[in-house]
Design goal:
- This protein has 169 residues and is of the alpha+beta class.
- It has one domain: CBS-domain, CATH 3.10.580.
- Helix content is 41%, strand content 18%.
- The strands form two sheets. Strands 1-2 form a two-stranded antiparallel ribbon. A two-stranded antiparallel ribbon has the order 3-4.
- The longest helix has 17 residues.
- It is elongated and about 80 Å long.
C-alpha cells in the first residue's frame, strides 16, 4: 500500500507573504500581481518568517468600506489582517487537512512548524494528492485477462509458456 502523503509532501514552500507594516495598497497589488486571494502576514526575525496574521481579499475590501465616506482610505496590513489564524503541522496527513477544509470556509491553510511559516497548503493541493493516490492504487490492480489477444497468445506459446495462454481461452 502506498504511503499517505503528508502536508509537507504537498504544500507550497515558496509562499508570497506580506508584512504587518506594509501599506494596504501595496499589499492589494501584491495579491493582484500574483493572482492570489490571500497571503500570510509575517514578521521576519533572524531570517525566519513568524506568522502573525492572514490578509484575505475580504480583509482588503474593508479598506474600501472605510473609505466610502471619506477621502482616499489608507492604512497598514496590520490594521486590516485577520489575527485568528488556523494553521496545520507539516507532518499531518492529507485526510487531516481535508477535514480542516470541510469544517472551515478558507481555501488555503498556513503550514507552521515550531512557530515558523514553512508553507501553505490549498484545497487544490489536497485534491491533486488524492487523485495521485487513487491513480496509483488503481494502476497496481491486476489487468483484466481479456486484454490478451491472439497475437500475444501465440507469442506466449512460442516462448514455451503456452500453458499460460490456455488460462485465457
Amino acid at each position: 500500500m502506498e504511503t499517505i502523503p503528508t502536508v509537507r509532501d504537498i504544500m507550497t514552500r515558496d509562499v508570497i507573504t506580506v508584512s504587518p507594516d506594509m501599506d494596504m495598497y501595496m499589499a492589494i497589488n501584491t495579491l493582484l500581481d500574483h493572482r492570489i486571494s490571500g497571503a500570510p502576514v509575517v514578521d521576519i526575525e533572524e531570517n525566519q518568517k513568524r506568522l502573525v496574521g492572514i490578509l484575505s481579499a475580504k480583509d482588503c475590501m474593508k479598506i474600501l468600506t472605510n473609505g466610502a465616506f471619506y477621502d482616499l482610505p489608507e492604512g497598514r496590513v496590520g490594521d486590516y489582517m485577520s489575527r485568528k489564524i488556523k494553521t496545520i503541522d507539516p507532518g499531518r496527513d492529507i485526510f487531516a487537512v481535508a477535514e480542516m477544509f470541510i469544517r472551515n470556509h478558507f481555501r488555503r491553510v498556513p503550514v507552521e512548524e515550531k512557530g515558523i511559516l514553512v508553507g501553505v497548503v490549498s484545497r487544490g493541493d489536497v485534491l491533486t494528492a488524492s487523485r495521485r493516490l487513487w491513480l496509483n492504487q488503481h494502476a497496481k490492480d491486476a489487468p483484466d485477462p481479456g486484454y490478451i489477444n491472439e497475437r500475444l497468445k501465440a507469442r506466449l506459446g512460442d516462448a514455451g509458456i503456452s500453458h499460460l495462454h490456455k488460462k485465457f481461452n
